[in-house]
Amino acid sequence: MSSNPQCIGIILDGNRRWASERGLPKLEGHRRGYERLIDCVRWVRDRGIPHLAVFAFSTENWKRDQEEVSYLMNLLLELAQEPLKRLSEEHVCVRFIGKLDMLSQEIQDAIKTAESAPVEGARLTLWVCFSYGARLEIVEAARDLASQHIEITESSLREHFWSGEMPDPDIIIRPGGEKRLSNFLLWQAVYSELFFIDPYWPDFSEEMLDEILAEYATRERRLGT
Questions:
Q1: Contact (CB, 8 A) for 161 and 137
Q2: What would the DSSP string read from start to end of 48-87?
Q3: Which CATH number is associated with domain 7-217?
């Protein structure tokens, strides 16, 4: 039987399809998805789970049309400036991981401000994977080690990941009906319990989270032993 998870990872998938099926602009799906993220942060925090990692924007997402990318950048800026500031007052720390130098200086500054917000009695750390790709994370860590002439081992690589301070996720959830990890925390997910569910991310609910946690509690995690 599994104990309470220490870290949950979520791939925020299905925003565009959610909007399309409702006759809404696909960009509205992204906004609803970001709003649901704030709800989910509170749900996870209130269940005593100390870490939540979310896949918000991949390195591959830069290839999407410019209008959508620009909208997502504006959403990120809005998220970093206001909602995350409110969460810091609700005992939530935030950390961004990814190829962040690809973002505008304005967004990078907003991220630094959000990360440095004082949090009293932190109960949850939210890890926002933005401009993130697991393969690139591994490559960048290897390059960093090589440049410093440090031996490349499992432990040294892990320490040099963007996510080096984040625990490996016990659970990874992917809404939207797809059954793949899509370059999300590939190294860290080696022993994660995977939950692929059909509802799109904007429809993810507190009840769905509880159902996943209840099933997780029944699973036997042998971790290769």
A1: yes
A2: T--EEEEEEEEGGGGGS-HHHHHHHHHHHHHHHHTHHHHH
A3: 3.40.1180.10
Catalytic residue positions, numbered: 13, 61
Interacting residues of 225 by C-beta distance below 8 A, sequence separation 6+: none
Q: What is the pLDDT of residues 122-149, one digit of tens each?
A: 999 999 999 999 999 999 999 999 999 9
Structure pTM?
Answer: 0.95
8 A C-beta contact, residue 4 and residue 215: no
Burial 71-97 (b: 16+ CB within 10 A, else e): bbbebbbebbeebbeebbeeebbbbbb
129, 56 contact by CB (below 8 A): yes
SS3 115: helix
Scanning the structure block, which residue is given the tokens 């569910």?
Answer: 197
Residue 24 CB contacts under 8 Å (≥ 6 apart), including other chains: none
